[in-house]
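Friendly challenge for the regulars: who can give me the structure tokens for this chain first? No prize, just bragging rights.
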Amino acid sequence: MIIKKRGIPGAFAGLASLVSRISESDEMFKRIKSDYKNSRAGFAGELKVDNYLKELELKMPYYVLQNLNIKVGKKEVQIDTLLIHPNFILVIEIKNMRGEFYFDPVNKHFYRLNDEGEKGRNEEPGSAAKSVDNYYQFISS
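First reply, four minutes later:
Bragging rights claimed.
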């Protein structure tokens, strides 16, 4: 059962409005358009996972919280989806990217291999707020 539904992200709505109004000749157009496409892809990925979770059939009751912000000490942790079941808690960080996606436990960051097999670090805006250390603090508290 979904008890906190995902809304349209404010940044996505703002970028959608801005990209439709800004002139292509504006020096910021390419960056705004790129940010909008990335935001749109991310939101589409979240909606796809939401649809899969609607079809989930577990024998015991479970709860889903989407787009959850939790304060941990002085930091805030944003969780795309949190599934709470009597036997487990699942934190789902959703990415809608091409290529193979990996986690480097030594350097504590995500990276991906693109279609050409090249390694690149995930430089998603706001990723500092989603640092692995914040997740560890959240899970261990």
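The chain has three helices and seven strands. The CA atoms of residues 16 and 36 lie 6 Å apart. Your move, everyone else.
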